[in-house]
Amino acid sequence: MGYVIGIDVGGTFTDAVALRPDGSMVSAKTPSTPPDYSQGVLSAIDLLAAELEMPVSQLLNETDHIAHGTTSSLNALVMGKVPSIGFITTRGHRDSIFIMNVEGRYLGRPQHELQDIMGQSKPRGLVERRLAREAIERIDRAGNVIVPLNEEDARQVIREILAEGVKAIAISLLWSFRNPVHEQRLRELVHEQDPTAFVALSSEVSPRIREFARHSTTVMSTQIGPGLKLYLDDLEGRLRDLGLRGALLVMQSAGGAIAASEAAASAITTIGGVLTGGVVGCAQLAKKLGHDNVIATDVGGTTFLAGIIADGEPVRAAQTIVNQHPVNVPTLRVDAIGSGGGAIAWLDTGGNLHVGPLSAQAAPGPACYGAGGTEPTNTDANLILGILPETGLLGGLRPIRKDLAAEAIRRRIADPLGMTVEEAAAAIYAVQNAQTGDLLRKIVVESGYDPRNFTVYAFGGAGPAHCAAYSAHIGVANVVVPLGPVASAFSAFGLASSDIVLIREHSDPMTAPFDPARVEENFARLEREVMEAMKRQGIRLNRIVLHREIDIRYGLQLEEVTTPLADGPVTAASLEACVEEFEQRYARLFGEGSGFAGAGIHAITFRIRGFGLLETHPVFEPLARAVSPDPSAALLETRPVCLTAGKGFVDTPVYDYHALRAGHRITGPAVIQVPTTSVVVPDGMYGDIDEIGVLSIQTNSNVTQFQPKRSVAG
């Protein structure tokens, strides 16, 4: 076995972890380099090679594979910074993408906004109306062609869209997942006029029932697909030129990677890849630390991402939400808001303070970077509050200026609100902690859990500065900050330890009792597709494991529960057992007696999860033990730090992480300075360093842990 590299490209920083053949690890962090993010990747690899004391060419030649995750696509969607695209759907259904199935006012909204009916509004449309067009055709629910595709009319529609200068077109027709012939022909017609145009078909991107979710998924995949393809093609070419021998993989939302050459065709599956990497990393660390229930939080430069591990397994979802739009991709449950370290603080017309979703990103970056940014961000506030060192970030490699941060906060926030700069910075810090805490409470409670039964894992460059506060906000007693050699590059660690995961699905609605032959036919086709795709990954797999799932619901309902189907022949008995499992899972989710089999039980979507297992075995190296809990030997300095507006600035000890040892106890208020992040231990809390360098913060040792009475299925 050779080296394995995980690289997490965020909107602000690029993190990298290399696993040596013996499982030990080194990490690196460097600023991201928009618009050419590949340069940041190459810089991170340079730093890894320096840590390993070998030439870059040797490292790449001895690398089995690089697992690459990026938030750039997700950030582009969250902030609406995507190119204009064309959209073609069935005649009479163009406005479905704008009507949003009446979901647009509430999807993904926090509870307090749902209660404010008058304050609700739809998000900006995914597609400009002038670029949303229709094709004359119709296929029925059985896949029969009712109205043939009018090709002359379609050619004219395509000609008009391309004349607007767009380079990509999303095609999503009614019932195309039952019969894709018209979508496939439309793609041929587009390429007749422009062979270079990027075309995404809903029958390939999201072959599921329900038109709005299928439309939005296909549109968003089309918005990010061309850019992802150009980026990955260029990056892989540059890596090959430098000597890369192994495969370049891209992380997906489903918890595993896919070959870079295959990623653009299903670009939407990659948007949650970075947090997915973090969840995979958390699952590995949680097994070692004995934590069954974990909330994984990744606070990068642009986004705040959160996922859940329950009973030792990541919580999965068949759908996620981005900017109030549904995204139809099987995923580890990941929720995101634009609330990272670079999130911009701003005032609305009523003088209310907001943080995010827009971000200063890496260019120009927060005002304190001195690179032209003028908007105040979380990072600027943390610098004013004393959380960040004035000597700079990344061990001084990224200089920062407090005067520029103060000026941005004064001009945009403090003066308009009649505050001091310090009060305004404390307000930004409080808003950031409250809104991230609200997101965590929402996703945990909606999954059927009590957050007090969970441990929060915090990573990312900005996560450790806020984690104790947002964890206490939801009643979590224990917070884990995975420091050590992976520190703020924890998502990159998860990427390096992930497997290949390929998912194929298909909607074929049927009513119980299900026809075994029809079910077997669905799964046989999906299994063939997965196995064929595995052969295209360009990497040696230890073994392949396939799991079968069916999304099932009761009649007269819209939401399904994903239910496993046992291995072996599909028989009437195995399908009856699957239905029984569905009813048990439904009862665990919604309460005993809440199901109503009399309404009928319907199978909606059939799915195969294929896992191509790779041989990666990360090893956490032990940390030397302290002679006593007193961390005084690691004290760097004492400086004024403000963590709450009520207490103001307090002289606070700042500790050097590299000098801390297993058994040291950090009593708050305190700051632990790591080259790649700063960890805050607030007043009234304490943190212990364990034998592998992990910091465990106790937010409130008096919090009572309750045993959950129900849990989420699967």
TrEMBL record:
Cellular component aspect of the GO annotation: cytosol
Transmembrane segments: none
The keyword Acyltransferase is annotated on this UniProt entry: no
Domain Hydantoinase/oxoprolinase N-terminal: 5-192
UniProt-listed Enzyme Commission number(s): 3.5.2.14
Domain of life: Bacteria
Entry's Gene Ontology BP terms: glutathione metabolic process
Any GO molecular function: 5-oxoprolinase (ATP-hydrolyzing) activity
Keyword set, alphabetical order: Hydrolase
Limits of the Hydantoinase A/oxoprolinase domain: 214-501
Statement: the UniProt record of this protein carries the keyword Hydrolase: yes
Domain Acetophenone carboxylase-like C-terminal: from-to ranges: 518-695
Name of this protein: N-methylhydantoinase A
Native species: Sphingobium jiangsuense
